[in-house]
Specification:
heterodimer, A: about 55% strand, globular, B: about 110 residues, 11 strands
Chain lengths: ~110, ~110
């Protein structure tokens, strides 16, 4: 595997379900991110982890719970979501501290909440 | 309030011609700017970046121009090719790893 991978690619869940999104980066980066992309809106940063420590939480509802067990893996645990949470969830990684700080994205998980 | 704006949701260009995608930002503290390209069913891929100490950066057919006084960024693709058809996002940051993205411009290059 290369780059940033995400599983599952598609997920349909009911409002009472609990599910998790998984992200893995194979780039040796030290920072990982969760973004939400809704139709006709900019990518919204949800969480940032630097060296496995959460450094940003952009007012995300508690029904989204991130977990970063190591610098290569990132999870987003989902619980009692709402239909408006249906969106594309993108994971990204980057090497913080270098000159170029571009983020590398995974293919995303298309989430539908019924 | 959006700090990065792409006011053109779509753009169509003839193959071989120049594509110009525009981006405006409001935060004068932004000092690093990037363009990403996104195909359907894929995540955004990094295309080109520019820091605020420069006003131009070129990579092959892609050139990014930065006008700090106008808080304006543009991406020029020349010559445009059908494979360039995708959604293009601009992003900005103010040193750190928090990026602010625009809503994207869908480019269609007509053969």
């Amino acid at each position: 595997e290369t780059g940033v991978t995400q599983t599952p690619r598609h997920l349909v869940m009911g409002m009472t379900n609990k599910k998790s999104l998984k992200c893995e980066q194979h780039l040796g980066h030290n920072a990982m991110y969760w973004y939400k992309q809704s139709a006709k809106k900019p990518l919204e940063l949800m969480f940032v982890y630097n060296f496995k420590e959460q450094t940003e939480n952009n007012s995300v509802p508690s029904r989204f719970s991130p977990e970063c067990p190591n610098s290569s893996h990132l999870f987003l645990h989902l619980h009692t979501l709402q239909p408006e949470d249906s969106a594309l969830y993108l994971c990204a990684s980057s090497q913080v501290g270098g000159f170029d700080n571009e983020q590398f994205f995974g293919p995303g998980t298309r989430l539908t909440v019924l | 309030d959006q700090q990065v704006k792409q006011n053109s949701p779509s753009l169509s260009v003839q193959e071989g011609r120049i594509s110009i995608l525009n981006c405006d930002y409001t935060n004068s503290m932004f000092d690093y700017f990037l363009w990403y390209k996104k195909y359907p069913a894929e995540g955004p891929t990094f295309l080109i970046s520019i820091s605020s100490i420069k006003d131009k950066n070129e990579d092959g057919r892609f050139t990014v121009f930065l006008n700090k006084s106008a808080k304006h960024l543009s991406l020029h693709i020349v010559p445009s090719q059908p494979g360039d058809s995708a959604v293009y996002f601009c992003a900005a940051s103010n040193t750190g790893n928090q990026f602010y993205f625009g809503t994207g411009t869908s480019l269609t290059v007509i053969p």
